[in-house]
């Protein structure tokens, strides 16, 4: 079968369109014929070697949409079932294996393209908004990287919940209209957001801030986080650690919470099924959607990575298998 593999860390040129063996499935696993996979910033970090050591050859990719090709004995799935999943060993491939706990059936009226856009970013966004951030309708919230996949989802979910004030941040104001069309009330750049947030909240600050960037953005976020507010840290796309002092939180009664979907997939996968079901229903109803920035063929994975790294896109980037 065809797949995209790499034999060392490096720039997008290390991604090689190759023939590899079809994966074998074990107990409580399924084999999925892939239709689409999404490209996430985590793929870039893993390709570069920024997410720990890897064993080569390595196939990237966090999630997939497709149909069940093969099951193990006594499976709750059948051949032909339409599903989304988090595969075991990457998803840039024609066939992928996945543990049944990380496979979810999708409604018949949901296209594979839209289904492929959602697994990582929608499940993550639901958990961030409802469980980690515990956002209330009366809150003012800040969503960093609001034009990206998770940001696009968080803005829409917050709008759907009737959150009082939704503030998005972007690298360039060229993306302002896109983010406002999703439901944001205000959009600012990373350079000015802390001052703007204070001005738009009468100097009270934001109740919840969602930060996937870290670095200097984390420091600026603390400058505009309200008393009793929560900073939700779930990534570091800047490649730099965010920092804070204990004095930043204890006297102001503020919280800093962290969350990783990767850790949860590995250590607490049963937590994801009810979230996936809820997200799939919303997507199938048309109440939320994820704009698709561009779709690449599997052989064009390197081009997809270059677009992600340029940050010159809005929504999700997909690979058609």
Question: What would you say this structure looks like, in words?
Answer:
There is one protein chain. With 321 residues, the chain is an alpha/beta fold. The chain has two domains: 2-118 and 290-320, Medium-chain alcohol dehydrogenases, catalytic domain (Quinone Oxidoreductase, Chain A, domain 1), CATH 3.90.180; 121-262, Rossmann fold. The protein is 29% helix and 26% strand. The protein is built from ten helices and 15 strands. Strands 3, 4, 5, 6, 7, 14 and 15 form a seven-stranded mixed β-sheet that branches. Strands 10-9-8-11-12-13 form a six-stranded parallel β-sheet, with helices on both faces. β9, α5 (176-182) and β10 (186-189) form a beta-alpha-beta unit. α3 (119-132) packs across α4 (149-160). The longest helix is centred in the middle third of the chain and has 14 residues, at 119-132. It starts with a strand and ends with a strand. One of its GO terms (molecular function) is NADPH binding. Pfam families: ADH_N, ADH_zinc_N. Residues 10-319 form the Enoyl reductase (ER) domain. This is Quinone oxidoreductase.
Q: Quick gist of this model?
A:
Keywords: NADP, Oxidoreductase. The protein folds into 2 domains: 2-118 and 290-320, Quinone Oxidoreductase, Chain A, domain 1, CATH 3.90.180.10; 121-262, Rossmann fold (3-Layer(aba) Sandwich), CATH 3.40.50. 29% of the residues lie in helices and 26% in strands.
């Amino acid at each position: 079968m065809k797949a995209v593999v790499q034999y060392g860390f490096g720039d997008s040129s290390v991604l090689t369109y190759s023939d590899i063996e079809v994966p074998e499935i074990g107990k409580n696993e399924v084999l999925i014929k892939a239709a689409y996979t999404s490209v996430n910033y985590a793929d870039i970090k893993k390709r570069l070697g920024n997410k720990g050591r890897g064993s080569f050859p390595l196939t990237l990719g966090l999630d997939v949409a497709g149909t069940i090709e093969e099951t193990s004995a006594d499976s709750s799935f059948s051949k032909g079932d339409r599903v989304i999943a988090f595969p075991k060993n990457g998803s840039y491939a024609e066939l992928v294996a996945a543990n049944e706990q990380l496979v979810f059936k999708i409604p018949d009226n949901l296209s594979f393209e839209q289904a492929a856009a959602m697994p990582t970013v929608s499940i993550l966004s639901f958990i961030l908004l409802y469980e980690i951030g515990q956002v209330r309708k009366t809150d003012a919230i800040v969503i960093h990287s609001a034009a990206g996949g998770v940001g696009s989802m968080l803005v829409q979910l917050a709008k759907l919940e009737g959150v009082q004030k939704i503030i998005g941040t972007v690298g360039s104001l060229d993306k302002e209209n896109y983010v406002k069309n999703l439901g944001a009330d205000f959009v600012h750049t990373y350079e000015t957001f802390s001052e703007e947030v204070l001005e738009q909240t009468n100097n009270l600050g934001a109740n919840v801030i969602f930060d996937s960037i870290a670095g200097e953005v984390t420091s600026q976020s603390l400058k505009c986080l309200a008393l009793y507010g929560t900073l939700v840290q779930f990534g570091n796309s800047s490649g730099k650690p965010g920092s804070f002092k204990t004095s930043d939180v204890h006297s102001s009664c503020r919280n800093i919470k962290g969350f990783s979907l990767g850790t949860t997939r590995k250590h607490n996968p049963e937590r994801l099924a009810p979230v996936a079901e809820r997200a799939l229903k919303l997507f199938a109803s048309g109440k939320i959607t994820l704009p698709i920035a561009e779709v690449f063929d599997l052989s064009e994975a390197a081009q997809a990575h270059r677009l992600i790294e340029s940050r010159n896109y809005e929504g999700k980037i997909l690979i058609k298998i």
